Amino acid sequence: MSRNWKLARLVAALTLLPAPGAAEEPAAEPRTEVLLEEIVVKSRREPRADGLEVREVRETPARDLGEALEQTLGLGKVRKAGIASDVVLRGLKRDDVNVLVDGTRTHGACPSRMDPPAFHLDWAEVDGVEVRRGPFDVSQPGGLGGVVDVRTRGARPGPGAEVNLGAGSSGAMESSAVASYGGGRASLLLGGAFKRSDPYLAGDGRNITEVIPATSTGRYRDTSDHQTAYDVRSGWAKVGLTPAEGQQLEVAYTRQEADDVLYPYLLMDGIRDDTDRVNATWRAGALGPLASARAQLYWTRVAHDMDDRDRCSSAADPAACAGGLAEAWSMRTEARTRTLGAKLEAGLGGADAAVEARIGADLVVRNWDNETIRVRRAMPGQPYVGEASIPDVTQTTGGAYAELRHALAPSVRATAGARLDVAESYAGVDRRDFYATWRPDTTPERSRTDLLFAGNVQLDWDAARGLTVFAGYGHGTRLPDPQERYMALAGLMGKPAWVGDPSLRPTRSDELDAGLRFTADRLLAKAQVFHAWVEDEITLVPLALASGATARTYAGVSARRVGGEASARLALPLRLHAGAAVAYVWARNDTAGTPLAEVPPLRASASLRWDDGRFFAEAEEQWAARQDRVDPALGERPTAAWFITNLRAGAGWRGVKAFVGVRNLLDKTYAEHLSYLRDPFAAGVKVPEPGRTLYANAQWTF
User: Fold this and answer.
1) Which residue windows are coiled coil (predicted)?
2) What is the pLDDT at residue 644?
3) What pairs with residue 371 in β-bridges?
4) Do residues 698 and 657 make contact, with C-beta atoms less than 8 angstroms apart?
5) How far is it, in rounded angstroms, from Cα 265 to Cα 269?
6) Average pLDDT over residues 657-663
């Protein structure tokens, strides 16, 4: 019996054990009041912020953070597989969006984003997620599109434990267990999680390994429904100490191992993906002249291996999918990233002061190193040749920031922030000859130093009881990542080369945001609009030589984005709750005079929920418009409109909760617009969303 199944059976067995000495819990609080309180809690967030509660995730079949965040207004995902979806915020992704876990950064190692930052934690670790849109956070470098701020859970006072079990269509199963003890001077939390699945089925009955055409050498050798689509194991620990009155020290470590992840979106699959996260944070309240203080040191590492052993391209005769090579694969990439970060921050002026200030300094060192090895079929003996596709690039960014909050009047608050960074990029392996081949009129450099400035001004006005109006201007910048500047992969087997541009300049965005938030006894309504002017927005573009050789490369273009979001949650009579949301982004590449690539269409949702405190039932409709604003230069194709119906129900009593549901009730066949990639390792197909998906989740807390 494999260790995975042993772990699953162990966690399942734990749920059958009584809680030793557990005190009887009081009867559950009426859910109607709980949901009203949730409306109140969400209304207390900053007007520009939205959040996702763990309760909302447990009621869905979401496999990871990227998929779960799709429930949050204005967010979407890039689906490449049954798991590991990438986060998209207002049509921005990659380094345009800061995904932080307790203030730390984890950079994926795969150049095709098999392992985006949101993939490297389990939901059982999470206490809550807050999403802040636009370039209005100066406490972190980059992230001109916004911030996804994940806060992990800590130990509550006294002993406690939680067990979660889940199962669903296509053999999906997950389990997690968390135990903790919180004392007066010290606390400890331990947790573990496991999840796996077979390939899911689309609405037309095909599983995701069948979406690649039979004429493609990237098709799967085995397209049965009983392969392993993903296998992920996680373990974590957090220790809390109180070294002195008003001070707290936390040290946390997480280890994640993901094996055998199938990516139909791409031409290779994830064989191994190991992640380590270490974080130490010290916090203090009033400390001399300071209202607060914080120091943080963290280190993260990702080791990612991918190859095509499950594809016909790994055969000696790919067209016939027959014969073997010297290795089990024809192409493989070994990828590594390491990130070291440090931060010092101090608060000046208390909550009652007319002026509050926050000042800080931080350092982020990011290293990314890839080696890609491929067979040369046209050469005698079909030898394997490797090249430094991301040539051991180190980016070091040091910055300082300050933010002021001032009450101009009892009902008017102003916020202003500024940040300055100095960043150095250096490629440890010299690939300048490769860049010069594709840009013979340039002199590429291995290193570059950039100066980046960011700042914002914001105004909040309590215009009437329950009504807050806000507006802001933000200027954001972000550094080109190591791949965009230094990618170096020769073309092979009819695929274009993949070429970075060492001369890329940092992206700069000027954005205006305005909106309002209205709260009443049973209503929370929000609306926000924005207009962003972006210079040197980094986008993928084709490149061709006179010889006929082609490549994909990166270029900085002038672009505009206009859009907004609106949502409402209303508590109705008869224990009913209604919700609705809509989001839209219009984007244009002003340099080319064409639509900007990879921008999601208009999306909307509506839901109605009945809840009496112990039982609930909910129906939801999700809808997306047709997207025909596509980039013709990259062969981007329109995506048809779609709608799906989701149902869920559940019950809770004395620490035990159970949820069941069906997503895509009518078994629609559809794909989201961001399900298609054009880089050289792309399969070139749209990856469909799951068809009718049944799921059940159970939670036991004591």
Assistant:
1) none
2) 96
3) 334
4) yes
5) 9
6) 95
Q: What is the mean pLDDT of the chain?
A: 89
In the numeric block, which tokens belong to residue 652? 């809770």
Q: Which position has the token pair 């980039």?
A: 631
Question: Structure pTM?
Answer: 0.88
Where does 3-701 sit in CATH, by number?
2.40.170.20
Task: Say how far apart CA 454 and CA 473 lie, in whole Å.
Answer: 11
The DSSP code sequence of 350-395 is: -TTSSEEEEEEEEEEEEEEEEEEEEE-TTSTT--EEEEEEEEEEEE
pLDDT per residue as tens digits for the range 91-127: 898 899 999 999 999 999 999 899 999 899 898 999 9
For residue 573, give both structure tokens.
């009579």
Q: Round to whole Å and give the CA distance between 675 and 79.
A: 6
- Residues 445 and 402 sit within 8 Å (Cβ to Cβ): no
Range 606-628 average pLDDT: 94
For every residue of 573-615, which 3-state class applies, written as one string? Answer: CCCEEEEEEEEEEEEEECCCCEECCCCCCCEEEEEEEEECCCE
20-24, 337-341, 444-448, 583-587, range with the lowest pLDDT? 20-24
Residue 14 backbone zone (phi > 0: left; psi -120 to 50: alpha; other: beta): alpha
DSSP per residue, 389-448? EEEEEEEEEEEEEEEEEEEEETTEEEEEEEEEEEEEEEESS--HHHHHHH-TTS---SEE
DSSP-derived pairing of the beta strands 97-101 and 146-152: parallel
CA atoms of 58 and 143, how far apart (whole Å): 28
3-class SS letters over 480-509: CCHHHHHCEECCECCECEEECCCCCCCEEE
For residue 660, what are its two tokens?
């069941």
Contact by Cβ (8 Å): 256, 122: yes
The CA distance from 637 to 211, in Å, is: 16
- Amino acid in the structure at residue 128: G
Dig out the tokens for 328 from the structure.
């089990």
Q: Which helix (H) or strand (E) holds 4?
A: helix 3-14
Dist CA 172 CA 206 (whole Å): 17
- 33 pLDDT higher than 60: no
Specify the 3-state DSSP secondary structure of 176.
strand
Contact assessment for residue 485 and residue 497, using Cβ atoms and an 8 Å cutoff: no
Q: In what order do the strands lie in the sheet with 49-53?
A: 49-53, 126-133, 146-152, 97-101
Amino acid identity for residue 462 in this structure: D
What CA–CA distances, in Å, run from 182 to 151, 190, 242?
18, 12, 11
Query: Per-residue confidence at 35, pLDDT binned at 50, 70, 90?
Result: low
- Residue indicated by tokens 């790994």: 314
Structure tokens at 580: 């609705």
pLDDT at 559 over 90: yes
Kindly report the number of other CB atoms within 10 A of residue 214's CB atom: 9
**For range 357-367, the mean pLDDT:** 96
Model confidence over 416-426: pLDDT tens digits? 999 999 999 99
Q: What residues contact residue 378 under an 8 Å CB cut-off, 6+ apart?
A: none
Q: What are the residues whose beta carbons fall under 8 Å from the beta carbon of 542, sequence distance 6 or more?
A: 496, 550, 551, 552, 553, 633, 634
Q: Residue 294's Cα: distance from chain center in Å?
A: 26
Q: Who has greater pLDDT, 65 or 649? A: 649
573-614 pLDDT per residue, tens: 999 999 999 999 999 999 999 999 889 999 999 999 999 889
Query: What one-character DSSP code corresponds to residue 67?
Result: H
Domain range list for the chain: 3-701
Q: Looking up tokens 């309590």, which residue turns up?
A: 462
